[in-house]
């Protein structure tokens, strides 16, 4: 059976209410069937939200299932991604997933219907399953709708009550209220039970509502199994253009299966076959109801991408001293000529120079304040809408608090551009709490990541432009201090490349640096040259992907003698990347010195700290001489 939804919010008819009831039963049956067949999953978390999603699907969601990339489609994000049986059952109900795929491939190797949703399915915007992320991602999608696309689509997010213990949920509501995102509607399935017992607030709906209201959103408390109440709430949620709405739906976990309703201990457990059979029979048996959702209203995004827009990167003279963070700001501002480029800041734009973009394109600059999780999530949500999003903050904060969001962006296989400034002991007097000494290792480990560490302004600008058109997660590490420009304006910096300085036939040792330590390596090479020792220097501006072939050739040319200097802890940093690249190659026996920050730094002047960490030119020179037996 097919039911057509009207394009206007006409009052719900008795026939539609009857269809919704049958659809809710079918969603419950299918959630039980697929998880029992798989032998795992979260059916009880799906059963509690079936009525909510049935009303949404029949009455309110506007979506062309044949064209999931249509710009005017609504967005539906399951922040409680473990309720994937419900989501996939909805896909069956609209006809994009067949019954056989749902029942026999759910959670199976090689199937699309994974344990938690991922964008391998074209109707899934972002991967979820790490709780507290779907709503923040939805903020980014809603930002695009209100301020960039200027289209009437809505972002619907199904949340679980357990994930309301995550601070990221409240960051999301705070920023949604600040940006007046009336196009964002969160539906919270308050079923009282978490994975290991009752949730913090259980069914205290008044406390939930007060918290929601305190963060600037509009709370609506309803019975999540009352079809009329759900309909009224979803309708009302769409009437406030300047305030996000949170529907707090009191539900029963396991609803529809009396044996386990509101019973602890059933989270993440499939129903045994005999219990599943009884439950399916009691719910009316398998159904074949098909729903045709309303098509979205026509419209065209206000911003049209222009990847061929003329970009005029800034120019610097060789020898001029420029901080790479300043070069980032100048370069990303030049990219403002492309209308699809947006920049997000974590309230440090005057230091990272992300704020420079605000002067060039204020309508595409979003301030997330000191909310780094929301910073990354907003970038991810904007990328869902096709925008080229750069997010910048101090490196120490960019890869710490929001690291799980970065990791999940990798799972989503989306494209975001991250810029971490003020990295390493080089930052100086601010001390160790501000020194990112783990960021290279963290970002190298992320799926789809690219890790870049330019040493001067022109290389930074070129790499920023490259990041704009690079799929996956790009991370650029930038320094606080100003350093001499060493490259001309026509120099190219491809991903996976490096630059070789002072190469000659009689080179005795290879010095490898990146960012600030490249300058130390160049100074060390000059010191060695005074003693008649030829040292070639590699600027490893691309740490991932890495230029393994050039490293191998340099290793062979210098008898396997390599000194690596990095302003980072040794674990997982540049030295580790170099050794991994050389492993298994036909290189001579390696004689390496890996210079990295070993202890806990203190405050001090940058050069003092570089020297104290053992990564200054003096220490690089000593290490090279030691490898040559002349130390």
Characterization of the model:
The protein has 3 domains: 2-6 and 18-292, Thiamin diphosphate (ThDP)-binding fold, Pyr/PP domains (Rossmann fold, 3-Layer(aba) Sandwich); 324-484, Rossmann fold (3-Layer(aba) Sandwich), CATH 3.40.50; 499-627, 3-Layer(aba) Sandwich (Rossmann fold), CATH 3.40.50. 37% of the residues lie in helices and 16% in strands. The chain has 23 helices and 23 strands. It has a 7-stranded mixed β-sheet with strand order 12-11-13-14-16-15-21, with helices on both faces. A 5-stranded parallel β-sheet has the order 2-3-4-8-7, sandwiched between helices. Helix 18 (457-468) links the parallel strand 15 and strand 16. Helix 1 crosses helix 4 (84-94) and helix 1 (14-38) runs antiparallel to helix 10 (273-282).
Residue share in helix: 25-40%
Radius of gyration computed on alpha carbons: 28 Å
Q: What is the CATH topology of the largest domain? A: Rossmann fold
The secondary-structure class comes to: alpha/beta
What sort of overall outline do the alpha carbons produce when their principal axes are compared? elongated
SS summary, helix count: 23
**CATH C-level category of the largest domain:** Alpha Beta
Number of domains: 3
What is the strand content?
15-25%
Give the terminus-to-terminus CA distance: 84 Å
Tally of strands: 23
What is the average per-residue confidence, as pLDDT, rounded to a whole number?
96
Oligomer: single chain
* Main sheet specs: 7 strands, mixed
> Taking strands numbered 1, 2, ... along the chain, how are they ordered across the largest sheet?
12-11-13-14-16-15-21
CATH-defined architecture of the largest domain: 3-Layer(aba) Sandwich
Corresponding CATH superfamily of the largest domain: Thiamin diphosphate (ThDP)-binding fold, Pyr/PP domains
Low-confidence stretches: 1-7
């Amino acid at each position: 059976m097919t039911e057509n939804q009207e394009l206007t919010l006409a009052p719900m008819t008795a026939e539609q209410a009857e269809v919704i009831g049958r659809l809710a039963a079918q969603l419950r049956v299918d959630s039980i069937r697929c998880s029992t067949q798989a032998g795992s999953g979260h059916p009880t978390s799906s059963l509690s939200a079936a009525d909510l999603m049935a009303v949404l699907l029949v009455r309110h969601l506007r979506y062309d299932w044949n064209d999931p990339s249509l710009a005017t489609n609504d967005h539906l994000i399951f922040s409680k991604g473990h309720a994937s049986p419900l989501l996939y059952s909805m896909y069956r109900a609209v006809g994009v997933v067949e019954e056989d795929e749902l029942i026999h491939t759910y959670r199976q190797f090689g199937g699309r219907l994974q344990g938690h949703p991922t964008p391998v399915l074209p109707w899934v915007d972002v991967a979820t399953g790490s709780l507290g992320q779907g709503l923040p991602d939805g903020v980014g999608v809603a930002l695009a709708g209100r301020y960039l696309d200027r289209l009437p689509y809505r972002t619907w997010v199904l949340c679980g009550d357990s994930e309301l213990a995550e601070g990221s949920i409240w960051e999301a509501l705070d920023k949604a209220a600040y940006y007046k995102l009336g196009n964002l509607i969160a539906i919270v399935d308050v079923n009282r039970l978490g994975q290991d017992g009752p949730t913090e607030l259980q069914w205290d709906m008044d406390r939930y509502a007060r918290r929601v209201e305190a963060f600037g959103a509009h709370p609506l408390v309803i019975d999540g199994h009352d079809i009329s109440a759900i309909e009224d709430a979803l309708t009302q949620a769409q009437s406030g253009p300047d305030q996000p709405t949170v529907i707090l739906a009191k539900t029963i976990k396991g609803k529809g299966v009396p044996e386990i309703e509101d019973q602890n201990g059933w989270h993440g457990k499939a129903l045994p076959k005999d219990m599943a059979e009884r439950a399916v029979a009691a719910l009316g048996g398998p159904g074949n109801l098909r729903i045709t959702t309303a098509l979205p209203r026509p419209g065209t995004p206000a911003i049209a991408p222009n990847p061929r827009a003329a970009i005029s990167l800034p120019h610097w003279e060789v020898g001029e001293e420029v901080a790479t963070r300043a070069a980032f700001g100048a370069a990303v501002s030049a990219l403002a000529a492309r209308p699809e480029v947006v920049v997000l800041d974590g309230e440090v734009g005057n230091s990272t120079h992300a704020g420079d973009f605000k002067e060039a394109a204020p309508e595409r600059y979003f301030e997330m304040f000191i909310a780094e999780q929301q910073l990354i999530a907003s970038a991810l949500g904007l990328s869902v809408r096709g925008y080229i999003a750069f997010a910048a903050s101090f490196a120490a904060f960019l890869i710490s608090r929001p690291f799980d969001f970065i990791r999940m962006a990798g799972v989503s296989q989306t494209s975001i551009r991250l810029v971490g400034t003020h990295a390493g002991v080089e930052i100086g007097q601010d001390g160790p709490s501000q020194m990112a000494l783990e960021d290279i290792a963290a970002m190298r480990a992320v799926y789809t990541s690219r890790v870049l560490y330019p040493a001067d302004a022109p290389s930074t600008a070129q790499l920023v432009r490259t990041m704009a058109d690079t799929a996956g997660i790009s991370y650029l590490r930038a320094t606080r201090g100003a350093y001499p420009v060493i490259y001309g304006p026509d120099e190219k910096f491809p991903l996976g490349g490096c630059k070789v300085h002072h190469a000659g036939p009689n080179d005795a040792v290879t010095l490898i640096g990146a960012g600030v330590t490249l300058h130390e390596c160049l100074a060390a090479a000059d010191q060695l040259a005074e003693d008649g020792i030829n040292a070639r220097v590699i600027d490893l501006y691309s740490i991932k992907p890495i230029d393994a072939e050039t490293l191998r050739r340099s290793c062979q040319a210098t008898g396997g003698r390599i000194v690596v200097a990095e302003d980072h802890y040794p674990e997982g940093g540049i030295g580790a990347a170099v050794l991994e690249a050389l492993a298994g190659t036909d290189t001579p026996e390696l004689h390496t010195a890996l210079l990295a920050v070993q202890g806990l730094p203190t405050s001090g002047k940058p050069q003092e700290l570089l020297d104290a960490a053992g990564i200054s030119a003096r220490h690089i020179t000593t290490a090279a001489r030691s490898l040559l037996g002349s130390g």
